[in-house]
Design brief:
By secondary structure, this protein is α/β, with parallel strands linked by helices. The chain is built from twelve helices and 29 strands. The chain has three domains: 14-86 and 203-264 and 300-306, 3-Layer(aba) Sandwich (Rossmann fold), CATH 3.40.50.620; 90-198, Alpha-Beta Complex (Glutamyl-tRNA Synthetase, domain 3), CATH 3.90.800.10; 332-443, Ribosomal Protein L25, Chain P (Beta Barrel), CATH 2.40.240.10.
């Protein structure tokens, strides 16, 4: 049980309700997955509602494209919102709350510029300075606010709190401003919009959210959250804001603003680029929803920020794929292997997944002409080398044992190995012939080109390889390329998902 569950249990009563409140100004990333799993997971545990609410208070940055993408990502993760709401659904209610603050003397219209307001606020060592407009009458403030709502004022509405408060966010924050932009949900209906910090607690109250869960950067925002709901005294249940540590991953920058810059400047090919830590990017790279949920469960919910190893996420995925993924053969750095003794073509019966006995084997055609990995042949090698060397034996996976008798070079580079085969060594036969090891292969006569994409941060490299013909099929989930790792098909290419070996230090 995490500390949030402990808080809930201590005061457990009727009225539990949660929400996930993204702003539709970009795609969801791995960091959002933690908040999604937390809010929807709590709702599942206590059998209560969890809303999806779009905190859409800035029409300059928001778009219905992002709304649709967020809905898809939440569904992909395996959650279904109880309701889908928008902060913009509550703009009339929020406007009336602003009017109430004006009437009670807790808000005023300020004609100062944004630069002047910033200068008035002071800093951590110096108190702020009252605006020259701070003592306007309630009547004047009401009139000017109505002008703002009509788009006839460039002033802003500020909460009247304390310009000397140690928390800079309580030094008369701006709560309403004019925005000349079409809103994705309300169109041209409004000319002025509430600020996020103003709309967010009011939206929580309107939906009767019991626990407003947010990351630690919102700790300084909590006093305003509480101040606003206290001053309005709306009645019914008052939401309680609780902060938890955000998700930080080693060498992975999780910032929607940064990710948007990568998209806008063309560094990546879009929000779903496999190099992106967005949920759509991770999905395209081959990460599964269940592995991400497992990762979020393993890192837990704490009150203190920490940095988690990316390798833990890889480990969660690797454990899953080892049990579920199909096996296929791909030769990444090919050289030819040709059997020079009389040889009859046939089909090798190879396992689709040795971890799952319920999955049948597959038939892979072979002939006397193979592709093998360059690293799987050496002219000379010590006894620790367990592959093919000149004069040595190796088993071609699922076929037979072969012996290297000669090779061919071009400009000092080996391009072909010539082998004899042992007729009594085919799979299923009893033979006294010993093989040093087993290597994978691809039939040169039936192989297909396979383009592999590998990623290192934002760097992308492409490798042209050969694979077995079954790779022409469609695959929804990643496939294990024997010895090479897991790959996810992406159009006519394959994205490297995760390696076979774990580097997790935890």
């Amino acid at each position: 049980m995490n500390f949030i569950e402990e808080i809930i249990e201590e005061g457990l009563k009727e009225g539990l309700k949660f929400r996930f409140p993204p702003e539709p100004n970009g795609y969801l990333h791995l960091g959002h997955a933690k908040a999604i799993c937390l809010n929807f997971g709590l709702a599942e545990k206590y059998n209560v509602e969890c809303n999806l609410r779009f905190d859409d208070t800035n029409p300059l940055a928001e778009d219905s494209l992002y709304v649709d993408a967020i809905k898809e990502d939440i569904e992909w993760l395996g959650f279904k919102p109880s309701n889908v709401f928008y902060a913009s659904d509550y703009f009339e209610f929020i406007k009336n709350c602003a009017m109430e603050l004006i009437s009670s003397g807790h808000a005023y219209m300020d004609d100062s510029t944004s630069e002047e307001i910033a200068a008035m606020k002071g800093d951590l060592e110096n108190p702020g300075v009252n605006s020259p407009y701070r003592n306007r009458s309630n009547v004047e403030n009401r009139k000017l606010f109505l002008d703002l709502l009509e788009g006839n004022s460039n002033g802003v509405l500020r909460a009247k709190i304390d310009m000397a408060d140690p928390n800079l966010l309580l030094r008369d924050p701006v709560i309403y401003r004019k925005v000349d932009a079409k809103h994705h949900n309300t169109g041209d209906k409004y000319k002025a919009y509430p600020m996020y910090d103003f709309a967010h607690p009011l939206s929580d109250w309107f939906e009767q959210i019991s626990h407003s869960l947010c990351t630690l950067e919102f700790v300084p925002h909590r006093p305003f959250y509480n101040w606003l709901l206290e001053k309005l005294d709306l009645g019914l249940q008052t939401p309680r804001q609780i902060e938890f540590s955000r998700l930080n991953v080693e060498d992975v920058r999780l910032s929607k603003r940064y990710l948007k810059e990568l998209v806008d400047d063309g560094t990546v090919d879009g929000w779903d680029d496999p190099r992106m830590p967005t949920l759509k990017g991770l999905k395209r790279r081959g990460f599964t929803a269940s592995s991400i949920r497992t990762f979020c469960d393993k890192i837990g919910i704490t009150k203190r920020d920490s940095v988690h190893e990316k390798s833990l996420l890889d480990e969660c995925l690797r454990d899953e794929l080892n049990k579920t993924s199909l096996r296929r053969m791909v030769v990444k750095d090919p050289i030819k292997l040709t059997i020079v003794t009389p040889f009859k073509e046939g089909f090798a019966a190879l396992e689709n997944n040795p971890e799952d006995e319920t999955i049948s084997t597959r038939k892979v055609e072979y002939s006397e002409q193979f592709w093998i990995e360059r690293e799987d042949f050496q002219v000379t090698a010590n006894n620790k080398y367990n592959r093919l060397k000149l004069g040595g034996n190796v088993r071609l996976k699922g076929v037979c044992i072969v012996k290297a008798v000669d090779y061919y070079e071009i400009d000092g580079e080996i391009v072909e190995v010539f082998c004899e085969h042992y007729p009594d060594s085919f799979s299923g036969m009893e033979t006294e012939v010993k093989a040093k090891g087993v290597i994978h292969w691809v039939n040169r006569q039936t192989s297909i080109p396979v383009q592999l994409n590998h990623f290192n941060g934002l760097e992308k490299t492409t490798q042209n390889s050969f694979g077995e013909p079954l790779l022409q099929n469609e695959y929804d989930q990643p496939v294990q390329f024997i010895r090479h790792g897991y790959y996810k098909k992406d159009g006519d290419q394959w994205n490297h998902t995760v390696s076979l070996k774990s580097s997790y230090r935890g």
